[in-house]
Design goal:
Elements (H helix, E strand, L loop, with lengths): L5 H18 L6 H5 L8 H13 L3 E4 L7 E4 L1 H10 L6 H8 L6 H7 L23 H18 L2 H6 L1 H20 L4 H18 L4 H17 L2
Antiparallel strand pairs: 1-2
C-alpha cells in the first residue's frame, strides 16, 4: 500500500469495524483492527484516522488505565457505513466490491475515480465543496429545513426540555445557514446538523419529528459524501 489519504483510511477502518461488529460485536484494540486488513496500516496513520472518526462521533474510544485503548463503532458510525454501501465512488462501496486491494493507489485509479481533496493534512479542515445545483445538495437542504421547522414547531418538546430544544434549534439553524450561504467543512456539518438530528431521530423514534430528523440525516450523509 502506498501513500493513503486519511479520509480514505478513516472510512476503510470504519467499514472494517462495521463488519466485525455485525459478526462478532465487542470492542477492539489497535492491533485487532489493523489485523482486519490484508495490507499494512502503520500506527501513525491509524491514530490519525481513528482520531478523525472519534471527532465525528463515528467511533467511541475507551481509555483504560495501563491498558491498550479500546475502540467501538457507534450507532452513528453504523448508519454512516450503511448509507455508503451502495453509493457509487465511495470508499465503503469500493472496499465492498474490490476488497483491500483497492487501497492500492493503482487499484483506486483503475476502479473508482478519486474525488477527494489532494491535501491530506488539511483534509478535515478544507471547505466542503457545495454542489448547490446538485440533487443531493437540494435534498439535504430541503429535508433539513423540514426537520428544522418540525422541531421548532413542537410545543411539547419546547415545554418539557426548553434548554435542550433551544440548543438544538440554534445548532441546526446556524449550520443550515452556513450550508446555504457559506463554505462549511464536513466536520462542521457532522457536528452542527447530523449529530443533533441523529439525537432527535433516536429520542423521538416513530414520531413525526423523529422521522423528519431521520430523513434529514440520510440526505445529509448522501450529500457530504457525494
Amino acid at each position: 500500500m502506498r501513500k493513503l489519504k486519511l479520509s480514505i483510511l478513516s472510512d476503510a477502518i470504519l467499514y472494517k469495524m462495521y463488519l466485525h461488529a455485525a459478526e462478532h460485536g465487542g470492542r477492539l484494540i489497535e492491533v485487532e483492527i489493523t489485523n482486519l486488513f490484508s495490507v499494512k496500516i502503520t500506527t501513525t496513520f491509524f491514530k490519525s484516522a481513528i482520531k478523525r472518526l472519534e471527532d465525528a462521533e463515528l467511533v467511541h474510544i475507551q481509555y483504560p488505565l495501563e491498558q491498550a485503548n479500546r475502540y467501538e463503532i457507534t450507532g452513528m458510525g453504523i448508519d454512516y457505513v450503511q448509507s455508503q454501501l451502495d453509493v457509487p465512488h465511495s470508499t465503503v462501496s469500493a472496499l465492498k466490491q474490490y476488497g483491500d486491494e483497492w487501497l492500492d493507489e493503482d487499484e483506486q485509479n483503475n476502479h473508482v475515480p478519486e474525488a477527494r481533496s489532494t491535501d491530506d493534512e488539511a483534509d478535515s479542515w478544507s471547505p466542503l465543496p457545495l454542489e448547490r445545483s446538485g440533487r443531493a445538495y437540494e435534498s439535504a437542504v430541503e429535508t433539513t429545513e423540514t426537520a428544522f421547522d418540525v422541531i421548532k414547531g413542537n410545543n411539547g418538546y419546547a415545554e418539557s426540555e426548553p434548554e435542550e430544544r433551544s440548543l438544538i434549534v440554534w445548532s441546526i439553524g446556524e449550520t443550515l445557514k452556513q450550508i446555504k450561504e457559506g463554505l462549511p467543512t464536513k466536520d462542521q456539518v457532522m457536528a452542527g446538523l447530523v449529530k443533533p438530528l441523529k439525537y432527535i431521530s433516536e429520542k423521538f423514534t416513530g414520531a413525526a419529528m423523529g422521522e423528519a430528523a431521520k430523513a434529514a440525516v440520510k440526505a445529509l450523509f448522501d450529500w457530504i459524501m457525494s
